[in-house]
Design a protein that fits this description.
homodimer; about 150 residues; alpha+beta; globular
Chain lengths: ~150, ~150
């Protein structure tokens, strides 16, 4: 698994934070080589297919989820996540994974993503293929992007 | 979402139980229409792409997971799930979702699946598209298949 995919994911997430939320973000130390990663409280999971196959998982705490929804809805304070809120979280995951896929495709590897599914609850993700994990720090908290991809 | 997909998933799971484990299984009442479903302790998640896009999730309790691993390894008793065990669980999820995809394709809708990711822990899955859920009963416990697919 190539460092260029890590860079692609960083570019995608930084771009989304800047363009949609007007917030700076920066990557913390990426790590790779694990077949299991701990989730945070909310995870958005997208399948990846094309020249690479696997999953992109975007994971963050519930408080960060509420702040993301608030920003997506124009700056409101979110106390509880309702159905509309969960829908916004799926859309956010779609942005991150979709833009990551676009950035990976710019590296000469054509990939596409499936619609997202959201997982709520602390859990462990495991894959046959190692995860590359990129934690992105911003003022609304850390968003971890885990990618587990293999060449088709 | 069509009843023929439910039947395809039932056929796939019944076939796997019979062919690989020599065990009968039968569908309990399927249910549909929910945008959120509770997971059991272990879930295998696969992305679906092609003429339908979304996810197939295969979910069961930890005790059932141990029995599945035991059967896959020739009838041993599994006390704790180690790395090889988790790998077997991914493979099992791959069988179920992959065979489901094949059975759905027989209904004239061509789909393919991504490699699986396993989620360990009780959690909630949410999707923009409603889930169709098929619980399959067998002597090693209930396996729930949740499918959330939309036409591309």
């Amino acid at each position: 698994m190539d460092v260029k995919y890590i860079n692609a994911v960083c570019r995608a997430t930084e771009g989304i934070f800047q363009d949609y939320f007007g917030l700076p973000s920066r990557p913390l130390a990426p790590y790779a080589g694990k077949f299991a990663v701990d989730s945070r409280q909310v995870s958005v999971i997208l399948g990846v297919h094309g020249q690479l196959r696997g999953q992109i998982i975007c994971s963050f705490e519930l408080e960060t989820a509420k702040k993301i929804i608030g920003l997506m809805m124009g700056g409101i304070i979110v106390e509880e996540i309702d159905d509309m809120g969960w829908s916004a979280i799926q859309e956010f995951g779609n942005w991150v994974a979709g833009t990551s896929a676009t950035e990976i495709s710019k590296e000469g590897v054509i990939v596409d993503v499936t619609p997202p599914v959201v997982n709520e609850g602390n859990s462990i993700f495991r894959s046959h293929n190692i995860f590359i994990s990129v934690p992105m720090q911003s003022e609304i908290g850390v968003i971890e992007i885990h990618i587990s991809l293999k060449k088709d």
